Amino acid sequence: MSKKRGFDIDFPEQTQDGSHTGARTSDARRGPMAAAISENADALRARAEAERVIREENDRIAHEHVRLKRAGLITDMVPLDAIRTEKLSRDRSLAPDPEIGELKDSIREIGLSNPIRVEPVGEHYELVQGFRRLTAYRELFAETGDEKFARIPAGLVATGETLTGLYRKMVDENLVRRGISFAEMAQLAVTFARDPETEVSDVEGAVATLYASAGRQKRSYIRHFATLLEAIGDVLQHSEAIPRKLGLDLVREIGNDEAFTAQLRDALSRDFERDAEAELAILQRALPGAAPVERSSASPSSSGRSQKAAAKTTLRCTVPAGTVRCAARDGKVELQMERDFSTVDRRRLEAAVAAFMSALDD
Predict the structure, then answer these.
(1) The model's pTM
(2) E strands within the chain?
(3) Domain range holding 122?
(4) Which of 19-23, 204-208, 245-249 has the lowest mean pLDDT?
(5) Which residue has better confidence, 299 or 1?
(6) Same-domain status, 185 and 141
(7) Is residue 271 included in any domain, yes or no?
(8) Which residues form the ParB-like N-terminal domain (predicted)?
(9) pLDDT above 80 for 81
(10) Helical axes 300-310 vs 276-286, angle rounded to 10°
(11) Which helix H or strand E contains 224, and what residues bound it?
(12) Into how many domains does the chain fold?
C-alpha cells in the first residue's frame, strides 16, 4: 500500500485570551510553489512597467521625428544619382552659371554649410531647393571621382506637401538671394500657370501665388517680364541677361504698337549665333528713338567686347565686420556681405568709394 503524502495547513494562531490572529506569523511556513508564483508575479509586473516606459519613450521619439521632418530639419546624406529634378520647373536659367566655380571652391574648402532640400518619393528624391548646390556637387564628383562628393547633405521634406507648397519653398529661398533675374522669375510663373497639376491657369494668379512674399512692385515687374516672354520668349536665347529697365521699355512698346512684336521677332530670328551682349544690342536697337547701330557691330567686334565683359575676377576678403565677396568685371565692381548698406550715411559712402577708387589708381 502506498504511503499518502501529507501537506501543511496553516491555522490562525490563538492568543492567550482565545482570539485568533487570522494571519501567519512567518513566511517560512509558505510552500515553495507559492513563493515561486509570488516571485513570478513580481517579475511580470516589473516587466510590464518596463515595457510601458519603453512604449512611451518610443512614442515620444516617433512624434518628435515627425515634427522635425515636417519642419525639414531631418538631414541625411543622399546619393546624387537618387535625386531627380523633374517635379518642379526651376527658376534658374539653364545657361552655364559663371559663379559655379566659386561655389565648388567653397565646398572643397569648408564643405556644404546649407543642405539642399528634397522630398522622398518611392526609391528616389525630388529636389525642392538647392539646384546650384546639387549642380556643384555633381560637377565636383565628375571632376574628381572622390566618393565624398557622391552624396550630398539634404534636408528631408515631409512627403505629401502640395505642389504649390513645394514651389513656394523653392521660390522663397531664391527671393532672399541676389542673382536671379526678373526673366527667370517670370519664366517660372509662366510654366507654373501652364502646369495642369497646379491650382492656377493664368500668369496673374501664378505670380500672386508664387511670389506672395515679394513686394507689390516686384510682382508687377515679374508680370511685365512674363508678358515679354509670352511675346518673344521662344526666340530669346539670353532672357536672363535682360535688365529691368530694358524689359519694361520693351513691354511698354509691345502694348503701344501691334507691329512691334513681329519686328522684334524678325530681328532676333535673323541672328542665330549670338551671345548675351549681342542679343541685348538687338533689343535695344528695336526701341523707338534708339541710336542706330550697324548690324556688323554685333559680330566680330561685339564678340570681342563680350569676351572682355565676361572676364571676371572674384575674391573673398575678411574684415572686422565679416567676410566680403568681391566680383570685378569690365566696368563693374560688386561687393557683397551680410550688412544693410542703405543705413550707412551717404557722406561716409561717398568717402569710402572715393578712397576705394584712389587706392586702385595708386
Answers:
(1) 0.48
(2) 75-79, 83-84, 116-121, 124-129, 151-156, 312-319, 322-329, 332-336
(3) 59-162
(4) 19-23
(5) 1
(6) no
(7) yes
(8) 76-174
(9) yes
(10) 120
(11) helix 216-232
(12) 3
